[in-house]
Amino acid sequence: MANYTAADVKTLRERSGAGMMDCKSALDEANGDVDKAMEVLRLKGLKGVTKREGRTTSNGIIIARVAGNKGYLIELACETDFVAKAEKFVALGDLIADAIAAAGAETVEAGLAASVSGKTVGDAITDEAAIMGEKVELRKVT
Fold first, then answer.
1. What's the total number of domains in the chain?
2. Looking at the structure, do residues 80 and 132 belong to the same domain, yes or no?
């Protein structure tokens, strides 16, 4: 018998943005532990990252930030408008824009190397893309 409830599946789905069946199987594998299930989803998502490399990212968001006397624009791209409008994707964009402005990054390469939550922006994007199950890329920094 499962060591989790429907509420646990809902919680994991809200935290991860993953599909309900993916959340259920991750909870099965993690024996009901939501934090371990998040890691299971992340690892399973990373396996699919290489499959998504060739996909086109034709949707996304543009975010502006001002730091000191400089303005920054970033373009965070994804595959579908559904993901582009998702709260989790927008929050990721805000986090990345803040990190890039704080670092003073002026190129995509410098933006990907900027630090956010104890890791690089590039790693943060990879982790979130793995959970979302969609290709996500930092396309422009200006």
1. 2
2. yes
Residue-by-residue DSSP string for 14-83: HHH---HHHHHHHHHHTTT-HHHHHHHHHHHHHHHHHHHTTS---EEEEEEEEETTEEEEEEEEES-HHH
Considering the domain architecture, whether residues 100 and 64 belong to the same structural domain is answered as: yes
Closest CA to 47 of 137, 113, 131: 131
Helix-, strand-, coil-residue percentages of the chain, each rounded to 5: 55, 20, 25
47 confidence band (pLDDT: 50, 70, 90): low
Q: Is residue 71 part of a domain?
A: yes
Please indicate, yes or no, whether residues 40 and 110 belong to a single structural domain of this protein: no
How many C-beta atoms lie closer than 10 Å to residue 67's C-beta? 14
- Give 108-141 pLDDT, tens digit per residue: 999 999 999 899 999 999 888 877 878 899 999 9
Asked if residue 1 belongs to a domain, the reply is no
Identify the residue whose tokens are 């200006």: 142
- Which residue range forms the structural domain that includes residue 75? 59-141
Q: How far apart are CA 122 and CA 24, in angstroms?
A: 28
Handedness of CA 108, 75, 121, 52 (dihedral sign): negative
